[in-house]
Structures are given as structure tokens and as C-alpha cells.
Amino acid sequence: MSVGEKKKALKLVHKTIKKACKKAGRDPGEVRILVITRNRRVPEIRELIEAGATLFGENRVQEAIQKISFFEEETEWHLVGHLQSVKAKVAIQNFKLIHTVDSLRIGFDLQRACEKLKKEANILIQINTTGMDEPFGVEPPETIPLIKELIKFPLVHIRGLMTQVPQLEEPEQSRPYFKKLHDFRDQLEKEKIPGVDLKWLVMGTSWDYAIAVEEGANIVKITSPIFPEE
After folding, report:
1. Number of domains observed in the structure of the chain
2. Boundaries of domain holding 24
3. Residue 51 maps to which CATH number?
4. Helix, strand, or coil here: 207?
5. What is the per-residue pLDDT across 129-142, written as a single tens digit (0 to 9) for each?
6. 94-130 in b/e burial notation, b at 16+ Cβ within 10 A?
7. Is 118 helix (H, G, I), strand (E, B) or coil?
8. pTM listed for this prediction
């Protein structure tokens, strides 16, 4: 796709978000588009920046750092794949937000890396809202106990929640899982756990992001139509 075609694709995503926000009585300015760039080359990302994208997500730490160095301050990068313990230090150095924390072990590894780097880490708690046998994501009943342990790590900051819903037959089928995360975020806010900031609610992909926005998402992960072959 050319830069012009990428601009049209991004415009279409913004239009869909605006429509979903209107339906839900929300401000479209609240919603950020996170473009997933796994397996994408630096020239493609440069075209996306020219088209107006600034927020990018990568699944693998090693692949990401080979790209991030080309763009310096003009972009923001999030880690959306599962974090391996041995990659914690590099992840903190390169990503503004780590999406996939679902265990005390990952929190410990991040805290230890932060201490060595004299830096801080911003994270999301990944929650399994589907009840399916997913490899990652903490179960809702276990989330509050986990958060109360994670806040003991002074350099690791909880900034919100995320969930990953597998692609179902229809986008509408994702709605109850998104609503569950939104409702759970509201429940957590009532707990008023010190040091916990639940600003970000990350859910929805290219398949069902309009439904996610209707249910409160303020970051959505997009590949197609920006990369239509995805």
C-alpha cells in the first residue's frame, strides 16, 4: 500500500471509531489506534508515520528493537506479546507500555530489571474474560490478589487492563467479554487500591474493534485494513 492508501485506511478506522463512540455517547478523542507492526519492515512503518500513525505495537521484543531505533522520539511503542523473563530489561528500555502481565513472576522480573536500569515500567494486567483455556491471562477472581502483590514493586506501575478475545464467527459475539472487562475495571476502581491507575482499557482487534469501543476500550489494536492481507 502507498502512503495515500494507508492514509485512507487510517481514516476509515477513525471513521468507524467515531461512529462507535457516537453510539456509546463517548468522545472519539479518547480512543487511540495501536497499529500492530509484527513482521513489517522499517519502510512500511515509515509510510505509516507519514500517513499519521504514531502508536505501534510489537509481539516480540527482539524484532521490535531492530525497528524502534530508526524512529526515536516520533513514535510510541507498546509490547503486546507475552514477555519472557530474560527480555524484561530490554522491554523496559524500549516500550512505554507492556500489555501482557499476568503473573507475580513477571512483575518480579520487571522490578529487578527496573532497579538495575534505574527506570520505571508501565504495565497492563492481562485478564482472561472468556473463560476459555487460554495460555495467558489471569482469571478475574485472581486479579485483585495479584494486583495487591504487584503494587509492592515500587518501580512497576499498573496503568490499566487488557483482554484478548479469539476471533469468533461474528464480531458481536465478542461484546460480553469486552463488557466483562469494562465492568471489572469499574469494580477494581471501587477497591481504591493505592498506586493503581486504571486509565487504559485495551481490547478489540481489526475484527471487532467497533464493538470494543462501544464497550469502553480506549486503545484498540489494528492490522487490517491498514495491512489488508492480514
Report:
1. 1
2. 3-222
3. 3.20.20.10
4. coil
5. 998 877 789 999 99
6. bbebbbbbbbeebbbbbbbbbeeeeeebbbbbbbbbb
7. coil
8. 0.93
